[in-house]
Write a sequence for this structure.
């Protein structure tokens, strides 16, 4: 972690490393132990059906429940309590691509922004580009970027790279796909991307055995957007 850089960032927001540490310590007491924060990737043949959340092939893929907490309020505009408390993650590696299925409860489908009190439902997966758990899970920093795959309920799937809070930048990449279905309880989404990408396009997953991963969920009916979201404040390990 680049603590001097982080301290400078937070100072500009009127915050301190001590306040971040206090929140992290509180959340850590409730989070799963490091040994349990592992998501195993199933390797299979073929890719055609995996892009659909409804495909029966997903019934054979191990599922992991991931607890979510309120994101750290790094800006004065981040107020309130996010709705989502957990999500279910399933991950498959097939045909040179990674398929990640996320499912969570959401009582209303918010597929468009309406006025200033309703925003888009969404979900995101964050990877440490360098593959090191020492990378700050708080959107990385100037020297240790993160790669974010973000799905929004209007059908968009965006590939982002961030070098710290508030720096997420869209990186054009046609190979990131997202599909979704509504269920009785909420959303099921599959985000997929090729394992191998160019350095400027994000995290290269080819040849890795593990990589740190984190998650986020937005409930548009609760006015959640940008930094107001439910997240994992600590890294999980994706075991490829």
């Amino acid at each position: 972690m680049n603590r001097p850089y982080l301290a400078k960032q937070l100072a500009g927001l009127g915050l301190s490393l001590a306040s971040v540490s206090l929140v992290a310590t509180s959340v850590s007491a409730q989070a799963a132990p490091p040994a349990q924060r592992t998501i195993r990737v199933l390797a299979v043949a073929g890719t055609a059906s995996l892009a659909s959340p409804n495909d029966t092939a997903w019934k054979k893929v191990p599922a992991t429940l991931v607890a979510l907490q309120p994101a750290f309020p790094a800006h004065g505009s981040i107020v309130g309590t996010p709705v989502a408390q957990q999500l279910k993650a399933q991950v498959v590696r097939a045909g040179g691509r990674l398929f990640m299925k996320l499912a969570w409860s959401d009582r209303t489908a918010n597929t468009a922004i309406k006025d200033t009190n309703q925003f888009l439902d969404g979900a995101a997966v964050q990877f440490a580009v360098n593959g090191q758990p020492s990378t700050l899970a708080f959107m990385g920093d100037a020297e240790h970027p993160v790669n974010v795959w973000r799905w929004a309920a209007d059908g968009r799937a965006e590939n982002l790279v961030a070098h710290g809070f508030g720096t997420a930048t869209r990186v054009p990449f046609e190979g990131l796909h997202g599909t979704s279905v509504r269920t009785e309880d909420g959303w099921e989404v599959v985000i997929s991307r090729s394992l191998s990408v160019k350095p400027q396009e994000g995290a290269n997953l080819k040849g890795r055995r593990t990589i740190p991963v984190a998650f986020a969920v937005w409930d548009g009916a609760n006015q959640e957007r940008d930094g107001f979201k439910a997240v994992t404040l600590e890294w999980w390990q994706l075991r490829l």
User: Anything to note?
Assistant: The helical segments are 3-12, 17-28. The first strand starts at residue 38 and ends at 40. The CA atoms of residues 84 and 130 lie 29 Å apart. The radius of gyration is 17 Å.
